[in-house]
Amino acid sequence: MSSDVTAYKFYDKDAKERTKINVLEDLFPRFPRDKYSVIYADPPWDYGGKMQFDKSSMGKESFNPNGRKVFISSASFKYPTVKLRDLKKLSVASIAEDDALLFMWTTGPQLANAIELGTAWGFDYKTVGFVWDKMNHNPGQYTLSQTEQVLIFKRGRIPKPRGARNVRQFLQVPRGKHSQKPDEVADRISEMFPTQKKIELFSRRERTGWDTWGLDVMDEETYVSQKDLKNSSQESLF
Questions:
Q1: Structural domain boundaries of the chain?
Q2: Any alpha helices (H) in the chain, and if so which ranges?
Q3: Residue-averaged pLDDT of the chain
Q4: What's the pLDDT score for residue 62?
Q5: How far apart are CA 152 and CA 87, in angstroms?
Q6: What is the C-alpha to C-alpha distance for residues 42 and 32, in angstroms, rounded to an integer?
Q7: Do 25 and 80 form a contact (C-beta atoms < 8 A)?
Q8: Which CATH number fits domain 34-48+83-228: 3.40.50.1980, 3.40.50.150, 2.60.40.10, 3.40.50.720?
Q9: Which of 25, 164, 182, 207 is the S-S candidate for 191 at Cβ 3.0 to 4.6 Å?
Q10: 137-158 exposure pattern, b = at least 16 Cβ within 10 A, e = fewer
Q11: What is the full DSSP assignment across 108-137?
């Protein structure tokens, strides 16, 4: 075995077979026509096919492809990821009230992209709204990755009337399934803005008191093919 073989090269074929196809390139759910004061989004960030290994710190000199099979993981194995340039095409501004807040999930590596995306969607970055301690960790190039953040962006003014003003930023909830976010965050947002019309983007489940949009929560009848939409000059996907 060549000394140039790395775990990434060795498991490349396996990774390609497990990577989910990005269906958003060909099939999109329509955005609703309503306007919302609170928008909560968990974008399916693309990590460029980056893989995690249980021995990720080992270099090619110590990698033994004939040894035991190591654990490999990637976001693209679990769900179709979307590149930043495509996420920017979503006209989130079209469903936002003049006074609206955007709550957006991000991870450390995607922090700059999240701020860029929020700006592209017509909002100004304001602060970190929530920090989730997953009570577990993933391998990292610098420190072990243990938290995810929800950024807050604003368009116009903060929606009124306000609800709770003492909602805590930090929460500790054990990590569940891959990319599954704790319900406590949406619950806290509801406490902050109980009367406003709210929508969750890229949602994976229905949520009481919220509208939802995403491939996992919408019926096939809701989907519109890219081909059909290209033939229509009256309606837009986004």
A1: 34-48+83-228
A2: 7-10, 12-18, 75-78, 84-87, 111-120, 183-192, 226-230
A3: 78
A4: 57
A5: 17
A6: 17
A7: no
A8: 3.40.50.150
A9: 164
A10: eeeeeeeebeebbbbbbbbeee
A11: GGGHHHHHHHHHHTT-EEEEEEEEEEEEEE
